[in-house]
Design a protein that fits this description.
The chain is of the alpha/beta class. Helix content is 41%, strand content 19%. It has 3 domains: 3-69 and 93-178, Rossmann fold (3-Layer(aba) Sandwich), CATH 3.40.50; 185-299 and 342-361, Argininosuccinate synthetase, chain A, domain 2 (Alpha-Beta Complex); 372-405, no CATH class. A 5-stranded parallel beta sheet has the order 3-2-1-4-5, sandwiched between helices. Strand 11 and strand 12 (274-280) form a beta hairpin. The protein is elongated, with a radius of gyration of 25 Å.
Length: 406
């Protein structure tokens, strides 16, 4: 890409060391105007300081946006209707945030007349793929600048030196403070990579975890929570109506207090390498368990099994950055149609890192028929003699094959 053809670029900007260096680097290397975009998606840190930092660096167009509700309602909740989980363990906390950020980057580019966007994802990770696939799907001709694939500032020391040389005021860099881990946080999770975690044999240090207490230190008494569902989404907790973001904030708090949501995973990145990461996903852990319990009562067997068969593909689409693809949207339509009947209440017990379903009910959509399921006399609701023919029909091919073998 020719650098002299970029007039204005929208940068996903946190105000930290990396993106502050990127901001200056873009101005110097591309000779372009920079617009900054900072999103609050529930990372638990103030985003307003990014405005002052951008202003101090001479930025005229600064976007600071609270996207927590949109993130929870339009991205996390649809994903949990599918019970999505990648490689059997990962609840896709980082993956699901990227489509929204990509969407806003290209929307701001259109609003401001920018002809490029830029991000701080490295050339080794999944995020570069997620940001860029999303951007191209929504703005096919957008130019994308990924400094980590272009520059030689490939260490923290080099970034610090660049900041010092160019008068970039980065508070934590000046103070010499450094988290040993690479972290990403939003309403759904917080992730940790790097430092001692790069050896998959090392147990994470207890003081690494920020959202959850250890199961050993969790309360000795369980916490009970009742979750009300409408069309597959939680709409109230303990009878109190809540928005999507409020649901997640509450479950993160109560789940974290009970040691729920820690995970230690070696996953297969889309770019080809294996990566070890640790995750805290209290709300997501509760939501997955409770949603499956609600579906177990209300969803037809074959519809539920079809969802389970499709879920790994759906999760892989999100992990690999294909949220805006036609195949994900088609699957979402199928998933959402199944959720029309997923209405009712699930009661869970949170205890020392565990989420235990202890009750579920649906006044309108329960398919559980006690008259049929009972071990007592069902008074003719189910004729047990019918089972003999059912079994013989299913055994027919097995019997034919057995006769051939013997």
């Amino acid at each position: 890409m020719s650098k002299n053809k970029v007039n204005k670029v929208v940068l996903a900007y946190s105000g930290g060391l990396d993106t502050s260096v990127i901001l200056k680097w873009l101005e110097d290397e591309y000779g372009c105007e920079v617009v900054t975009f900072t999103a609050d998606i529930g990372q638990g840190e103030e985003v307003e300081p990014a405005r002052a930092k951008a202003q101090a660096m001479g930025i005229k167009e600064i976007f600071i946006e609270d996207l927590r509700e949109e993130f929870a309602r339009d991205y996390v909740f649809p994903m949990f209707r599918a019970n999505a989980i990648y490689e059997g363990e990962y609840l896709l906390g980082t993956s699901i945030a990227r489509p929204l950020i990509a969407k806003r980057l290209v929307e701001i580019a259109k609003e401001t007349g920018a002809d490029a966007i830029a991000h701080g994802a490295t050339g080794k990770g999944n995020d570069q793929v997620r940001f860029e696939l999303g951007a191209y799907a929504l703005m096919p001709d957008v130019k994308i600048i990924a400094p980590w694939r272009e520059w030689d500032l490939l260490s923290r020391e080099k970034l610090m030196n660049y900041a010092a040389e160019h008068g970039i005021d980065v508070d934590f860099a000046k103070a010499g403070k450094k988290s040993p881990y690479s972290m990403d946080a939003n309403l759904l999770h917080i992730s940790y990579e790097g430092d001692i975690l790069e050896d998959p044999w090392n147990e994470p240090e207890e003081d690494m975890w920020r959202w959850t207490v250890s199961p050993e230190k969790a309360p000795d008494e369980p916490t009970y929570v009742e979750l009300t569902y409408e069309k597959g989404d939680i709409v109230a907790i303990d009878g109190k109506a809540m928005s999507a973001a409020e649901v997640m904030e509450y479950l993160n708090k109560v789940g974290g207090e009970n040691g729920v949501g820690r995970d230690d995973i070696v996953e297969n990145r889309f770019v080809g390498m294996k990566s070890r990461g640790c995750y805290e996903t209290p709300a997501g852990t509760v939501m997955l368990k409770a949603h499956r319990a609600m579906e177990s009562l209300t969803l037809d067997r074959e519809a539920a099994h079809l969802k389970d068969e499709l879920m790994p593909r759906y999760a892989k689409m999100i992990y690999n950055g294909f949220w805006w693809s036609p195949e994900r949207e088609a699957l979402q339509a199928l998933i959402d149609q199944t959720q029309e009947v997923v209405n009712g209440v699930v009661r869970v017990k949170l205890y020392k890192g565990n989420v235990i379903v202890v009750g579920r009910k649906s006044d309108t959509n329960s398919l559980f028929d006690e008259a049929i399921a009972t071990f007592d006399d069902d008074e003719g609701a189910y004729d047990q003699k019918d089972a003999e023919g059912f079994i013989k029909l299913h055994a027919l091919r097995l019997r034919v094959a057995a006769r051939k073998r013997h």
